[in-house]
Specification:
By secondary structure, the protein is an alpha/beta fold. The chain has a domain at about 25-130: Cupredoxins -  blue copper proteins (Immunoglobulin-like, Sandwich). It has 4 helices and 8 strands. It has a 5-stranded mixed β-sheet with strand order 2-8-7-4-5. A 3-stranded mixed β-sheet has the order 1-3-6, with no helix packed on it. The protein is globular.
């Protein structure tokens, strides 16, 4: 009886391992509890970003209601002028989650009305990630293989003979 409980415990642990997703970078909720909105002061988002380190593989989470705001990645010139002449990407559906895929400077604004001019803009510097990222197919295949072998090993070790 006790052996069957131990077996069930290991099986649940193995199933939990199968359900856990691939470990990735940090999730940064832009603006913390304020989210992505018009801030009280124009430096709010830069003040929020200043103590943080951003790396390739991290995700920026922009919390906002669709139709109220948007997230547009722009060039530095567009960021400085609050214009949309050279957009890199445009996102209208909130919340928006953006995975940081390239190192370097990244610039984000809200393109609605005068939001950018009122401080709804963010610039960050993304560092190269510490751990090399495997290609999606190779990473998924190796992760699946590891989990499959783990489950089979548990069955072999704890099956009654």
């Amino acid at each position: 009886m006790a052996k069957s409980h131990v077996l069930l415990l290991f099986l649940y642990a193995a199933m939990g391992g199968l359900m856990i997703g691939e470990v990735g970078g940090m999730n940064h909720i832009v603006g913390k509890s304020l989210g992505w909105t018009i801030p009280q002061n124009a430096s709010f988002y830069q003040d929020w970003a200043a103590p943080r380190t951003f790396a390739v593989g991290d995700k920026l989470v922009f919390l906002y209601s669709s139709g109220m705001h948007n997230v547009i990645e722009v060039s530095k010139a567009d960021y400085d002028a609050c214009t949309q002449k050279n957009t890199i990407s445009v996102h209208f559906s909130g919340p928006t989650v953006l995975k940081l895929a390239k190192p370097g400077d990244h610039y984000f604004i809200c393109g609605l009305r005068q939001h950018c001019l009122r401080g709804q803009k963010l610039s960050i510097k993304v560092a190269q990630g510490q751990v090399p990222v495997e290609s999606g197919a190779d990473s998924a295949k190796s992760l699946f293989s590891f989990r499959l072998v783990s489950v089979l090993l548990i069955f072999v070790l704890f099956m009654p003979i």
